[in-house]
């Protein structure tokens, strides 16, 4: 039993290790090579070229402003929403739950596109409306700018920051605040001196995770930054490898190394902080509901703010996309616009062979990738949770490492590997890359499912005479179904919309939805883009529905038979 | 079926410290009896049970069940738990929440691939035995604690194993239910005539259920014997103290005469149950509170007489508990509720030498 377990641990370490460390090693080797065709010949040229380029420093400056700005916005908004939800008498609290699961439904790429459709300087719908209303000379807003990018990225990172801050807020021990009030401090002073300092680890963790995500973000910089020539590291790298006549993978690898190093360090800090914040949280386990702060007059205005945010995050992007897919060209909603509506763009997309191929590829990658990914995650999560050894600790660190990987950088690493193999330009390359990068999304729900299964349930099956495999099939898997379903849903929706890794690895013949949508955006084909975008949302939503139904059915069968 | 354990040790390493969970244990558990491993938490009793069932691997030694070697360091034998053909009732019951009562109980038979009609017959018989026949279709999560406990027992019994292991099966029940279930379990086990190994830290459970009790401490078996032997005639101070409430008084052996051992202690000169301890050496005198009987002016022949006064008196429901000051010692005693005594009153006790137990220091 012990031996079998350690064999399994080593096998998984090998698989996970090659998935996560291999692209990193290839990236490092690549950065010291002369080029894709001259792999292995040592040179420092690429580093010298990359880090002495004057354009590089402008890019760094942009990146810092973009990353810090959007993370501050996301964390601030998350703190505001979490406080309102957990500690005040604001109405309709279910809205907060919705805000926190939205990123699963609307891909970042489409969210960025919908903002471009609304606020681009030449024919953004909102700009046109404002110009007409106030008879302005030029468009009042330009989303193709750093502030525009910060706004959109901040809104996109808001849910993840909220998911970290809200639990810390809800398990906050109110007596800490009450004693501060008793000793004479007012609401504000208490908030400043007690509440926020106690929540500091959670707030910092949320901020750092936002930093990592906006550093890796490609959708916002490519859709909103590149038209206005505002480059950040992700798009700078993309330019190097995807544009022009001579893609320079060596220089890209050299720049990518420092992006990767920054991300990995930040994630290590993040993990240290979250274990710290869990320590803070476990202090109180009192059963009663925290006392709520009465908002009095501010109740309705604050609610309107939350309502507006949900509108911006959920309704607006989908509505704008749907509207754009139906009108012949960008125009302000009006009687004439509605008269001109047609399915023209939809038909064009469905007749476009590349769009159809990308639909098929993405669906295939979503279903097959998520299935394989979940299968691997089940074993990894099992070892992490149930086999407590040094090796399983290493496996845990390895498997969470890819959480910090910026897709485009790891894509470059994978590129250095795949060109040496027949996998290059096949769907297998994308499949392997997807699983490597999104493994934590499969492992996390499964390991929390394993944690809830008491060791005795498994042991008792063994004592009853069942082999380890029978135990896995009849006891562990049925109990894991909810975890498996949510892991599958997470991975499948991530894969269907995947952009950052795909822009590097996708080649003619292996187009995927997000890459095709990006092409449409670059060519300004907004109508087709919107039609394909809605199709993408439909595909991932139906995968969610199917997985939920299958999960429910499986549980039913098991409990009746 | 007899279980033989020879030289079994198990060490854990935790936070840089080594813990001897089992320290070279030699033990023979006789067949067809109810055998209890009793000891405070952390004494190694559960580890020993898990080594027998195969969920834990010892560091050294050998384990035989019914003559067959299931684990041996030297012979490099390690039979996995599913092939040991044992049954176990877990502390948490380990009822599978995704199955109903029938499937939980049928599981051991299903994995042995018995025909469906045989499984049905055997499960029904077992459920009748534990009086759960009405609950077959009930989801396992919709059962009370006591019912879950009986499902766990039914699952252990259904495949008619030769040995059943119990890991503190009553500790998750509330006090009243625990008392009922204890009686019930005793009834079930007496009827079955199988080998049962029962782990508990509750002395009353051990006394009520067992044919044979082994008391463990720090990974070692300290003493083994029938419940009465352990209660009335323990060899060591640790066991005497652990198995029931006891007044322990330091004493010095003075003489052996007329089938009694005479000791000198804080209570005066006391005649005790005969025990071969060299004259002049130190020992501990153990008197259980229930044997301190209030005497009138006259005491029974040969009984020790103790004179003292009531220092404190507490009403605990079925009795009074009193602390009695006698000489330099303070003893715990229990009185009937119709005793008319108050704090400060003088009191005289008679104690039968047969109940004055001498144990090692």
Explain this structure.
The complex is a heterodimer of chains A (561) and B (361). With 561 residues, chain A is mostly helical. Chain A folds into 2 domains: 1-43 and 343-561, MetI-like fold, CATH 1.10.3720.10; 45-333, MetI-like fold (Orthogonal Bundle), CATH 1.10.3720. Chain A has 24 helices and no strands. The model of chain A is unreliable at 280-289 (pLDDT under 50). Chain B is of the alpha+beta class. Chain B folds into 2 domains: 3-238, 3-Layer(aba) Sandwich (Rossmann fold); 250-359, OB fold (Dihydrolipoamide Acetyltransferase, E2P) (Beta Barrel), CATH 2.40.50.100. Chain B is built from 8 helices and 21 strands. The longest helix of chain B is centred in the middle third of the chain and has 18 residues, at 175-192. The chains are: A mainly alpha (561), B alpha+beta (361). The interface between A and B is medium-sized, with 22 and 30 residues.
What's the quick description here?
The complex is a heterodimer of chains A (561) and B (361). Chain A is mainly alpha-helical and 561 residues long. Chain A has helices at 2-31, 45-52, 54-87, 94-101, 108-119, 125-134, 146-170, 174-182, 187-216, 219-225, 233-242, 249-281, 299-326, 335-339, 344-351, 353-386, 390-401, 407-418, 427-452, 455-463, 468-497, 502-505, 513-522, 526-560.
- Rounded mean pLDDT of chain A is 84
Rg from alpha-carbon coordinates of chain A:
25 Å
The coarse silhouette of chain B is globular
Strand content of chain A: under 5%
Q: How many domain modules of chain A?
A: 2
Name of the CATH superfamily of the largest domain in chain A: MetI-like
Q: Low-confidence spans of chain A: pLDDT under 50, at least 5 residues?
A: 280-289
Regarding quaternary structure, what we see is: heterodimer
Number of domains of chain B: 2
Instruction: Give the beta-strand count of chain B.
Output: 21
**SSE pattern of chain B:** EEEHEEEEHHHEHEHEEHHEEEEEEEEEE
According to DSSP, the number of beta strands of chain A is: 0
CATH superfamily caption of the largest domain in chain B: P-loop containing nucleotide triphosphate hydrolases
The arrangement of helices and strands of chain A along the chain is HHHHHHHHHHHHHHHHHHHHHHHH
Integer average pLDDT of chain B? 88
As laid out across the biggest beta sheet of chain B, the strand order is 7-8-9-3-10-11
Secondary structure class of chain A reads: mainly alpha
Number of helices of chain A: 24
Largest interface: A-B, 22 and 30 residues
């Amino acid at each position: 039993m012990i031996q079998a377990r350690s064999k399994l641990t080593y096998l998984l370490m090998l698989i996970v290790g090659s998935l996560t460390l291999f692209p990193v090693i290839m990236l490092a080797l690549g950065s010291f090579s002369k080029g894709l065709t001259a792999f292995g010949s040592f040179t420092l040229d690429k580093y010298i070229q990359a880090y002495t380029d004057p354009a590089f420093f402008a890019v760094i400056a942009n990146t810092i402003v973009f990353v810090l700005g959007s993370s501050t916005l996301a964390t601030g908004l998350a703190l505001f929403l979490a406080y309102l939800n957990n500690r005040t008498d604001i109405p309709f609290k279910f809205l907060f739950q919705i805000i926190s699961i939205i990123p699963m439904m609307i891909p970042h790429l489409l969210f960025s596109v919908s903002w471009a459709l609304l606020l681009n300087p030449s024919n953004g719908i909102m700009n046109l409306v404002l110009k007409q209303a106030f008879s302005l000379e030029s468009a009042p807003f330009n989303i193709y700018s750093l502030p525009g990018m910060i706004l959109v990225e901040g809104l996109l990172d808001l849910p993840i920051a909220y998911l970290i801050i809200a639990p810390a807020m809800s398990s906050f021990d109110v007596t800490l605040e009450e004693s501060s009030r008793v000793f004479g401090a007012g609401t504000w002073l208490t908030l400043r001196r007690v509440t926020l300092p106690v929540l500091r680890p959670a707030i910092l963790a949320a901020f750092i995770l936002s930093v990592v995500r906006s550093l890796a973000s490609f959708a916002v910089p490519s859709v909103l930054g590149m038209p206005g020539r505002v480059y950040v590291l992700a798009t700078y790298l993309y330019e190097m490898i995807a544009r022009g006549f001579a893609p320079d993978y060596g220089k890209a690898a050299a720049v990518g190394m420092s992006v990767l190093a920054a991300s990995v360090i930040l994630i290590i800090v993040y993990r240290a902080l979250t274990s710290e914040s869990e320590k803070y949280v476990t202090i109180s386990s009192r059963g009663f509901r925290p006392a709520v702060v009465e908002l009095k007059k501010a109740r309705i205005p604050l609610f309107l703010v939350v309502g507006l945010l949900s509108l911006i995050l959920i309704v607006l992007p989908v509505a704008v996309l749907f509207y754009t897919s139906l009108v012949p060209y960008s125009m302000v909603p009006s009687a004439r616009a509605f008269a001109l509506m047609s399915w023209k763009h939809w038909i064009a997309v469905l007749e476009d062979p590349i769009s159809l191929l990308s639909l098929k590829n993405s669906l295939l990658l979503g279903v097959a990738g998520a299935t394989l990914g979940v299968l691997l995650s089940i074993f990894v999560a099992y070892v992490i949770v149930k086999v407590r050894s040094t090796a399983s600790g290493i496996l845990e660190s390895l498997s969470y490492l890819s959480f910090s990987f910026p897709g485009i950088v790891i894509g470059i690493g994978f590129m250095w590997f795949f060109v040496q193999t027949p996998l290059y330009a096949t769907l297998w390359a994308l499949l392997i890359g997807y699983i490597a990068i999104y493994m934590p999304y499969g492992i996390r729900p499964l390991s929390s499912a394993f944690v809830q299964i008491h060791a005795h349930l498994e042991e008792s099956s063994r004592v009853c005479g069942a082999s380890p495999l029978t135990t896995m099939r009849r006891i562990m898997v049925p109990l894991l179904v909810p975890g498996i379903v949510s892991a599958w849903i997470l991975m499948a929706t991530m894969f269907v919309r995947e952009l950052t890794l795909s822009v590097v690895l996708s080649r003619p013949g292996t187009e995927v939805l997000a890459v095709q949508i990006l092409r449409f955006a670059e060519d300004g084909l907004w109508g087709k883009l919107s039609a394909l975008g809605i199709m993408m949302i439909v595909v991932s939503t139906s995968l969610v529905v199917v997985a939920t139904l299958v999960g429910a059915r499986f549980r039913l069968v098991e409990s009746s038979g | 079926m007899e279980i033989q354990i020879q030289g079994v040790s198990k060490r854990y390493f935790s936070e840089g410290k080594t813990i001897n969970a089992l320290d070279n244990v030699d033990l023979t558990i006789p067949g067809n009896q109810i055998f209890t491993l009793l000891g405070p938490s952390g004494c190694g009793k559960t580890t020993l049970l898990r080594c027998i069932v195969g969920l834990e691997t010892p560091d050294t030694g050998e384990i035989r069940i019914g003559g067959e070697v299931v684990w041996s360091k030297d012979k490099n034998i390690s039979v996995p738990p599913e092939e040991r053909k044992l049954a176990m009732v877990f502390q948490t019951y380990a009822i599978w929440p995704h199955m109903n009562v029938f499937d939980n109980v049928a599981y051991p038979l299903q994995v042995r691939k018995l025909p469906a009609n045989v499984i049905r017959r055997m499960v029904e018989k077992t459920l009748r035995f534990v009086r759960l026949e009405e609950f077959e279709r009930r989801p396992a999560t919709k059962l009370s604690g006591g019912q879950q406990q009986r499902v766990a027992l039914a699952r252990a019994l259904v495949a008619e194993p030769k040995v059943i292991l119990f890991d503190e099966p009553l500790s998750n029940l509330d006090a009243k239910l625990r008392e009922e279930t204890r009686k019930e379990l005793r009834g079930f086990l007496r009827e079955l005539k199988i080998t049962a190994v029962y782990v508990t830290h509750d002395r009353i459970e051990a006394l009520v259920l067992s044919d044979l009790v082994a008391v463990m401490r720090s990974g070692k078996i300290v003493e083994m014997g029938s419940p009465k032997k352990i209660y009335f005639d323990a060899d060591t101070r640790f066991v005497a103290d652990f198995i029931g409430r006891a007044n322990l008084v330091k004493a010095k052996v003075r003489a052996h005469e007329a089938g009694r051992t005479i000791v000198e202690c804080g209570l005066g000169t006391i005649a005790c149950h005969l025990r071969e301890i060299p004259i002049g050496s130190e020992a501990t005198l153990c008197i259980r509170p229930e044997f301190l009987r209030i005497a009138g002016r006259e005491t029974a022949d040969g009984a020790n007489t103790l004179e003292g006064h009531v220092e404190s008196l507490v009403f605990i429901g079925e009795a009074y508990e009193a602390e009695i000051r006698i000489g330099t010692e303070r003893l715990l005693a229990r009185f009937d509720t119709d005793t008319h005594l108050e704090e400060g009153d003088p009191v005289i006790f008679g104690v039968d030498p047969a109940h004055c137990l001498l144990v090692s220091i």
